Amino acid sequence: MNTFQDLLTRKLAEALAAASLPQAGAVTPATDPRFGDYQTNAALVLAKQLGENPRALAQRILDAYDRWDLCEPPTIAGAGFINFTLRPEIIAARTAELLRDARLGVAPAESPRRIVVDFGSPNVAKPMHVGHIRSTVLGDALARIAIFLGHDVIRDNHLGDWGTQFGMVIYGWKNLLDRAALDRGAIAELVRIYKETNEKVAADPKVREAVREELVKLQAGDPENLSIWKETVDLSLKEFEDAYQVLDIHYDIQRGESFYNDRLPAVVERLLNSKIAEISEGAVCVFFRDIPELAEKPAIIRKSDGGFNYATTDVATVDYRIQDLKANTVWLVVGAPQILHFKQIIAIARREGYTADLRHITFGSILGEDRKLMKTRSGENVPLRDLLDEAVQRARKIIEEKNPDLSEPEKIDIAQKVGIGAVKYYDLSQYRMTDYIFSWDRMLSFQGNTAPYLQNAYVRIRSIFRKAGQEFTAPAQIALGAPEEKTLALRLCQFAEVVPTVLNDFRPNVLANYLFELANSFHAFYEACPVLKSEEPARGSRLALCELTARVLAKGLDLLGIKVPEKM
Ligand code: ARG
Predict the structure, then answer these.
(1) Gap between the Cα atoms of 455 and 419, Å rounded
(2) How far is CA 14 from the centre of its chain?
(3) What is the CA(28)–ligand 1 centre distance, in A?
(4) How far apart are CA 315 and CA 349, in angstroms?
(5) Mutate to test the pocket of ligand 1, among 117, 121, 133 (most ligand atoms within 8 A of CB)
(6) CB 193 within 8 A of CB 172
(7) Distance (Å, whole) CA 404 – CA 469
(8) Could you tell me which residues are beta bridge partners of residue 278?
(9) In the sheet that 283-286 helps form, which strands lie side by side, from edge to edge?
(10) 3 state DSSP class of 475
């Protein structure tokens, strides 16, 4: 199904050709609805190129072409914009089509890609904390949208499950472990033994040596140390799984750093053989003398003591994803502190001749009310599970006040959807690069651009159908008499224009904003146009607008990983 934007873009191309003008400009939704539904800056762009008067050029385009069909005769405004107002019956016909389309008008991508999305990726033996929200929620939303657009997506959890910290963990496990505490909360106990070992290392060189030996033994494949390592990984994964369950996050594969371990020597050999890497002060390094921002920052892929590191693993990871998984696109959804690291990794991949589209998708931080990185009172990272539990509890309290008559199972279900939805939506509705202040009151508000506001719009529509006592049946015709009806219908048609643009710069906030505006248009329509009390055929037509709004809201929120309750 072509969107109105596509159709008008094609018409504009024909018009420019008819006026013997070069192709220029774009068709975009109107910035001011008083002038129309869409506009083009073509005449302005051409005027600059050709040194002519923009309004005169706009007139020339309109004089040369009269087959705009889907809209009223276009008008010229301001410095030379051409404005298009769609004919109501065209919008009505498209709206009726959308009601029959499970994809709600969204066309699948013309050239589907195989995309590995690396997101979340927490470190084992450490708790997931508030800092993991952005990567997890953003990566999941991008994956959902890519899947909906027909891409072949592999969601990969690149767990930090290998590395020097395991020397400490294993030493602590052997000498300090409290089994009962481990059963109560595995990661908390792993953190405790890690911290205590760390303190001992600082105070006692003998412990430092013992820790080093445990690490060497692990790396050499010592069975006891391997089995302790494996157990800490499994225990951590169990706790991560619990958070993923609550968040409704799913991975297709979880290839942690350890998965790449036995590939690392070959990676270093290869980079040395191809002269991409060189030996410098006993270490194997890749220099980027030709890339100004990296000129002073070589990547070390084998330390002078022979150990491999994070960069080596990521080079092996690129190989695996492109060669074994056959990905042509990789999205690395990882915070801004790793920008330099991934610049190096991507530069190495280029030198190796890989042409796949490798993207580091970064994001800002979550701040506390004091505008500093969000921490607990005692200065620790806020554990993710505590935060999610609090979200659900707070949502429950609000729902109990608003609707005390709900049954207990309904309350549990709604609190879950509203609380978790609020946390996710608050994150996704911000431009990903900006830091934001975590605020329970704002994210759980029923007013403004929040999940509860959108969920409530959906619920309101469901209650209209409950009141009507009927299932939805598509009417013979959609009629858009009132301006609020036309505005709402046009917005519904624009879902298909918005969804693909999210992936242009990885901005789910574009979709969030659209949903917010859709809900606003729905409320304006609902104020102005009685639904159940109106006569046929208006009644059926308005019910159809309600139904389609509910479907688009639910689908849009689903693409952001957010569920809708039927009541709240
Ligand atoms: N585990 C890492 C961290 O917590 C993130 C891993 C990101 N992915 C990657 N391929 N390096 O910082």
Answers:
(1) 11
(2) 37
(3) 38
(4) 7
(5) 121
(6) yes
(7) 23
(8) 285
(9) 278-280, 283-286, 299-302
(10) coil
Place of tokens 């020339």: 60
* Sheet with strand 329-333: strands edge to edge: 152-156, 114-118, 329-333, 357-361
CB-count burial class (<10 Å; 0-12, 13-18, 19+) for 63: exposed
Residue with tokens 């089995």: 227
DSSP 242-278: HHHHHHT---SB---GGGGGGGHHHHHHHHHHTTSSE
Check if 135 has its Cβ closer than 6 Å to any atom of ligand 1.
Answer: no
Chain-centre distance of CA 7, in angstroms? 29
Encoded tokens for 259: 């998965």
The amino acid at 434:
T
Calculated CA dihedral for residues 186, 190, 191, 196, nearest 10 degrees: 140
Which tokens belong to 110? 């013309």
Q: How many CA atoms lie within 13 A of 106 on its CB side?
A: 23
Q: Is residue 314 within 6 Å of ligand 1 at its C-beta?
A: yes
Query: 375 falls in which pLDDT band (50, 70, 90)?
Result: confident
pLDDT in tens, 85-140: 999 999 999 999 999 999 999 999 999 999 999 999 999 999 999 889 999 999 99
SS3 of residue 478 by DSSP: coil
CB atoms within 10 A of CB 107: 15
Give the pairing type, strands 329-333 and 114-118. Answer: parallel
Q: What is the pLDDT of residues 23-58, one digit of tens each?
A: 999 999 998 888 899 999 999 999 999 999 999 999
Q: Residue 203 Cα, ligand 1 centroid: separation in angstroms?
A: 31
Distance 342 CA to ligand 1 centre (A): 10
Q: Which residues contact 204 (CB under 8 A, 6 or more apart)?
A: none
The reported pLDDT for the residue numbered 32 is 86
- Name residue 207's amino acid: V
Residue whose entry in the numeric block shows the structure tokens 């890989």: 354
Nearest-CA residue for atom 1 of ligand 1:
160
Q: Are 27 and 8 contacting, i.e. CB atoms less than 8 angstroms apart?
A: yes
Q: How many residues are given for the chain?
A: 568
Nearest protein CA to atom 11 of ligand 1, as residue? 314
**334 touches ligand 1 (CB under 6 Å):** yes
φ, ψ for residue 81, nearest 5 deg? -70, 145
C-alpha angle 489/501/485, rounded to 5°?
10
138: phi > 0 → left, psi -120 to 50 → alpha, else beta; which? Answer: alpha
Does the CB atom of residue 333 touch ligand 1 within 6 A? Answer: no
Spacing, Cα 259 to ligand 1 middle (Å): 14
- Our answer on whether the CB atom of 123 is closer than 6 Å to any ligand 1 atom is yes
Closest by Cα among 77, 98, 73, 89 to 30: 77
Question: Domains along the chain?
Answer: 4-86 (3.30.1360.70), 165-247 (no CATH)
Identify which of 247, 251, 243 has the alpha carbon closest to the alpha carbon of residue 119: 251
CB 121 less than 6 A from any atom of ligand 1: yes
- Looking at residue 181, its pLDDT comes to 96
Neighbours of 57 (CB within 10 A): 25
